[in-house]
């Protein structure tokens, strides 16, 4: 027996021809062995590419050590930060600086309403293509998310650009023209020398373009981001994960309010100007804070978050098993077709299929009503607090930031937790939305609280001096010869507790700078009663003139307010916000459950289109229009109307109450109709509680027999799945 390569050969069989032929398989075996690697080589590229695409990394760089982060928890971690940054910028920084950019660039509330609505305009335009293309089978949702965050950072940089395009801010009140000068002549061409280029349409255009980039970049976050989480976690944990995600999205605006408010305590030109040398403090009505710093910071954060988001694969390990384990709760009509829409020309057909789902339609209308209130009050609630309760812009932002964290974030998280704790099915979830929205509607009566208007000389109260015929509301005999037509708006608080348009309109002829305050003396329009207030550095009090070395008649600060309703309003606003956000997660869960699984990304896109078209886009315009209607004094510069200088507090509070109450009642009606029209698969009535048995990641879905209707059998209180436990209808 000889040993050869590939096996053994017995030579004895070669000598005798016994009629049997030895079959040597060595050559064939070697041939098959040589072909097998070729076959493996042919099949490896396709499988290798698929495995490579499911690994974490960027392009061809997908190291093994990076795969430990390929989990749903790490995806949620970075998505939470992306959502927080989006909320911090769009619903935090932008809303905080609304009042500041109005004063800095001479804008009206309607114009800043257009700026606030630019975000939703871009979202409206981008939602359908982004959700449809990004939600298709095999599409990489993390790639859409990462590039969207980078685009959002670019928008933040552009939003800060107007600060660098205008000359340094000029403080009104310390120029000779701001004081009363006898027999002063007014130049007819003084408008040519004023810096009127700082305001106008160009600033609005830059802000709106930046907001368009914000909206386009944030579009995937709450559509593709939500479905990416829902597809990669079990049904039992989906509400918890989404609750954490939306909680961070609510914490973002709180961070924006707090950080943005602190930035407003810094002077806008702080790199080149020391605010203490110009006699102005954050309490002054003409103070302009560093509104642009927050947007530079957010652009840097967007770059940091986008890099890890781009590294995630289009699906995480175990996603296929999770999809197989989920049982559909889609509305009966929506569940009748199982084919997914995969071609662009089928987009109208997909839209019509969703529009035939009445529960989905009414949930969209409820979301639009809620979105209108959230968007409008997020933009203008700081202004309302600032004007109603006589607080600075930074203090108003800080108050909103403090109540947004526990109310908005806590309400969002608790809403998701209640769905899981009570194991609510779609019908029970919608009932929860009805209840909490009705409670929120009751607390909207907080807007009844209103403070008295400032005693503004010539506007809300008369001058102590007789008026001048034909001189306008701000003219009186005490300032008739001062030539105040050119004086800019620089309100001062007189010792008679009245506000005057400027030192000139108060008849002040002398000014003294002390620390960070501007003190005015010899003010003819300020009522004299034998005593003067005294300024002690940062402390101002009322004392007899004999004890004062620095008496003054007026100061460039806000008059103190004795309105007692501030903290009552803050508490009631906290309650409104808490119950409003309690419905956020349940409403989202109901939307995801009442449509087919293959329609979820597209359904969220359609929902956000409706919410923006009917709610968040017109909201800032409507709120801005009504706030402008409550304006009592407009800034006039060379014949053009600028920003509003004084508001009627009573009218403002009544307008806000009407908007809040009507919006909440509409939400209650729409949520109720969504519950009334809901039909679960196979039955007229739906279980309010989800089945008690949860399918694990490795379990197979229940088999549906021909005699059953989608696996559901009649039960005395509704319908239940034969493979699962029966639960009563709530």
Automatic annotation (TrEMBL):
<dbReference type="GO" id="GO:0016323">
    <property type="term" value="C:basolateral plasma membrane"/>
</dbReference>
<protein>
    <recommendedName>
        <fullName>Solute carrier organic anion transporter family member</fullName>
    </recommendedName>
</protein>
<dbReference type="GO" id="GO:0006811">
    <property type="term" value="P:monoatomic ion transport"/>
</dbReference>
<keyword id="KW-1133">Transmembrane helix</keyword>
<feature type="domain" description="Major facilitator superfamily (MFS) profile">
    <location>
        <begin position="75"/>
        <end position="678"/>
    </location>
</feature>
<dbReference type="GO" id="GO:0015347">
    <property type="term" value="F:sodium-independent organic anion transmembrane transporter activity"/>
</dbReference>
<feature type="region of interest" description="Disordered">
    <location>
        <begin position="26"/>
        <end position="48"/>
    </location>
</feature>
<comment type="similarity">
    <text>Belongs to the organo anion transporter (TC 2.A.60) family.</text>
</comment>
<feature type="transmembrane region" description="Helical">
    <location>
        <begin position="361"/>
        <end position="385"/>
    </location>
</feature>
<feature type="transmembrane region" description="Helical">
    <location>
        <begin position="144"/>
        <end position="165"/>
    </location>
</feature>
<keyword id="KW-0472">Membrane</keyword>
<feature type="transmembrane region" description="Helical">
    <location>
        <begin position="397"/>
        <end position="419"/>
    </location>
</feature>
<dbReference type="Pfam" id="PF03137">
    <property type="entry name" value="OATP"/>
</dbReference>
<feature type="transmembrane region" description="Helical">
    <location>
        <begin position="75"/>
        <end position="98"/>
    </location>
</feature>
<keyword id="KW-0406">Ion transport</keyword>
<feature type="transmembrane region" description="Helical">
    <location>
        <begin position="565"/>
        <end position="588"/>
    </location>
</feature>
<feature type="transmembrane region" description="Helical">
    <location>
        <begin position="202"/>
        <end position="228"/>
    </location>
</feature>
<feature type="transmembrane region" description="Helical">
    <location>
        <begin position="426"/>
        <end position="449"/>
    </location>
</feature>
<feature type="transmembrane region" description="Helical">
    <location>
        <begin position="609"/>
        <end position="627"/>
    </location>
</feature>
<dbReference type="InterPro" id="IPR020846">
    <property type="entry name" value="MFS_dom"/>
</dbReference>
<feature type="transmembrane region" description="Helical">
    <location>
        <begin position="110"/>
        <end position="132"/>
    </location>
</feature>
<dbReference type="Pfam" id="PF07648">
    <property type="entry name" value="Kazal_2"/>
</dbReference>
<feature type="transmembrane region" description="Helical">
    <location>
        <begin position="240"/>
        <end position="260"/>
    </location>
</feature>
<feature type="domain" description="Kazal-like">
    <location>
        <begin position="472"/>
        <end position="527"/>
    </location>
</feature>
<keyword id="KW-1003">Cell membrane</keyword>
<feature type="transmembrane region" description="Helical">
    <location>
        <begin position="290"/>
        <end position="312"/>
    </location>
</feature>
<dbReference type="GO" id="GO:0043252">
    <property type="term" value="P:sodium-independent organic anion transport"/>
</dbReference>
<keyword id="KW-0812">Transmembrane</keyword>
<feature type="transmembrane region" description="Helical">
    <location>
        <begin position="655"/>
        <end position="678"/>
    </location>
</feature>
<keyword id="KW-0813">Transport</keyword>
<dbReference type="InterPro" id="IPR002350">
    <property type="entry name" value="Kazal_dom"/>
</dbReference>
<dbReference type="InterPro" id="IPR004156">
    <property type="entry name" value="OATP"/>
</dbReference>
<feature type="compositionally biased region" description="Basic and acidic residues">
    <location>
        <begin position="32"/>
        <end position="48"/>
    </location>
</feature>
């Amino acid at each position: 027996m000889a040993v050869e390569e590939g096996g053994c050969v017995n030579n004895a069989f070669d000598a005798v021809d016994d009629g049997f032929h030895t079959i040597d398989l060595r050559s064939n075996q070697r041939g098959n062995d040589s072909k097998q690697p070729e076959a493996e080589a042919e099949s490896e590229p396709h499988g290798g590419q698929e495995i490579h695409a499911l690994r974490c990394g960027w392009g061809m760089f997908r190291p093994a050590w990076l795969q430990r982060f390929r989990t749903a928890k790490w995806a949620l971690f970075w998505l939470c930060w992306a959502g927080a940054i989006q909320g911090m910028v769009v619903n935090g920084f932008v809303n905080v600086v609304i009042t500041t950019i109005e004063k800095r660039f001479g804008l009206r509330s309607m114009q800043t309403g257009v700026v606030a609505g630019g975000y939703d305009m871009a979202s409206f335009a981008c939602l359908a293509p982004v959700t449809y293309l990004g939600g298709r089978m095999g599409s990489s949702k993390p790639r859409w998310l990462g590039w969207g965050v980078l685009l959002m950072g670019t928008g933040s940089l552009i939003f800060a650009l107007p600060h660098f395009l205008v000359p340094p801010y000029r403080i009104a009140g310390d120029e000779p023209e701001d004081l009363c000068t006898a027999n002063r002549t007014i130049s007819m061409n003084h408008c040519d020398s004023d810096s009127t280029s700082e305001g106008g349409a160009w600033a609005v255009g830059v802000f709106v373009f930046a907001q368009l980039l914000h909206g386009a970049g944030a579009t995937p976050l709450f559509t593709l981001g939500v479905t990416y989480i829902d597809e990669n976690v079990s049904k039992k944990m989906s509400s918890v994960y989404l609750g954490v995600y939306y909680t961070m999205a609510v914490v973002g605006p709180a961070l924006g309010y707090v950080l943005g408010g602190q930035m407003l305590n810094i002077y806008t030109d702080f790199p080149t100007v020391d605010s203490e040398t110009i006699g102005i403090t954050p309490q002054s009505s003409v103070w302009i804070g560093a509104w642009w710093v927050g947007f530079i910071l957010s652009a840097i954060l967007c770059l940091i978050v986008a890099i890890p988001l781009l590294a995630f694969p289009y699906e995480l390990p175990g996603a296929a098993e999770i999809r197989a384990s989920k049982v559909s709760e889609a509305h009966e009509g929506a569940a009748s077709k199982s084919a997914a829409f995969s071609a662009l020309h089928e987009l109208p057909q997909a839209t019509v299929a969703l529009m035939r789902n009445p529960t989905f339609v009414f949930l969209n209308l409820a979301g639009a009503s809620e979105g209108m209130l959230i968007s409008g009050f997020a933009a203008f609630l700081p202004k309302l607090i600032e004007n109603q309760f006589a607080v600075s812009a930074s203090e108003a932002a800080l108050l909103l930031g403090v109540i947004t964290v526990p109310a908005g974030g806590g309400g969002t998280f608790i809403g998701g937790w209640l769905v899981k704790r009570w194991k609510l099915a779609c019908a029970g979830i919608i009932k929860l939305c009805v209840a909490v929205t009705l409670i929120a509607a009751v607390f909207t009566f907080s807007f009844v609280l209103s403070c008295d208007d400032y005693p503004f000389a010539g506007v809300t109260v008369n001058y102590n001096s007789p008026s001048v015929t034909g001189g306008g509301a701000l003219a009186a005999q005490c300032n008739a010869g001062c030539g105040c037509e050119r004086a800019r708006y620089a309100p001062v608080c007189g010792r008679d507790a009245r506000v005057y348009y400027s030192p000139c309109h108060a008849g002040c002829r002398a000014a003294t700078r002390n620390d960070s305050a501007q003190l005015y003396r010899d003010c003819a329009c300020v009522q004299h009663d034998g005593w003067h207030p005294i300024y002690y550095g940062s402390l101002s009090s009322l004392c007899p003139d004999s004890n004062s070395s620095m008496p003054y008649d007026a100061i460039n600060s806000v008059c103190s307010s004795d309105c007692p309703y501030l903290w009552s309003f803050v508490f009631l606003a906290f309650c409104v916000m808490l119950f409003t956000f309690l419905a956020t997660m349940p409403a989202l869960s109901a939307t995801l459950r009442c449509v087919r699984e293959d329609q979820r990304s597209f359904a969220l896109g359609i929902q956000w289109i409706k919410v923006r078209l009917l709610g968040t886009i017109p909201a800032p315009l409507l709120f801005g229009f009504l706030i402008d209607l409550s304006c009592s004094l407009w800034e006039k510069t060379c014949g053009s109307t600028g920003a509003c200088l004084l508001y009627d507090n009573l009218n403002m509070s009544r307008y806000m109450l009407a908007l809040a109450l009507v919006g909440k009642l509409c939400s209650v009606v729409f949520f109720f109709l969504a519950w009334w029209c809901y039909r679960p698969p196979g039955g007229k009535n739906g279980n309010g509680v989800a089945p008690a048995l949860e399918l694990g990641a490795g379990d197979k879905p229940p088999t549906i027999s021909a005699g059953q209707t989608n696996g559901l059998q009649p039960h005395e209180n509704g319908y239940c799945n034969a493979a699962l436990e029966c639960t009563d209808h709530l």
